[in-house]
Amino acid sequence: MPRSVNAVASRARRKKIMQMAKGYFGARGKVYTVAKNTVEKGLQYAYRDRKNKKRAYRALWIARINAASRLNGTTYSKLMFKLAQNGVTLNRKVLADLALNHPEVFKAVLDSAK
Fold first, then answer.
1. What are the pLDDT digits (tens) for 18-43?
2. Does any domain span residue 66?
């Protein structure tokens, strides 16, 4: 019985990796074995940084809310405590947007929490 190598699938697999490595510097974009390692590492970074992006945005929102609340005479932690006590269910993303783009509405939210 002749040996089956299934060249079509093997070629497609290599082609997929080389397509993902397009634009990389030097051998990283030209040599399959090097490109494969680089693409795998890049995918690991992408997976990790999708999680880190959420973390970074949350930190940014908290910093913006804190700055705006200090301009209005309170702190972030006191504001969030009062909002929770009064049942205001605005999340940090919305509060940060209000603080940045609509300071008068943010002040109204802050006043309703007092």
1. 999 999 999 999 999 999 999 999 99
2. yes
In a domain, 3, yes or no: no
User: Model's pTM, two decimal places?
Assistant: 0.80
Instruction: Scan for tokens 């269910």, then name that residue.
Output: 89
Q: What is the pLDDT of residue 4?
A: 81
- Domains of the chain: total: 1
3-state SS, 29-97, equals HCCHHHHHHHHHHHHHHHHHHHHHHHHHHHHHHHHHHHHHHHHCCCCHHHHHHHHHHCCCCCCHHHHHH
Rounded mean pLDDT of the chain?
A: 95
Who's near 18: CB < 8 A, 6+ residues apart? Answer: 29, 32, 35
Instruction: Give the whole-angstrom CA distance, residue 50 versus residue 24.
Output: 21
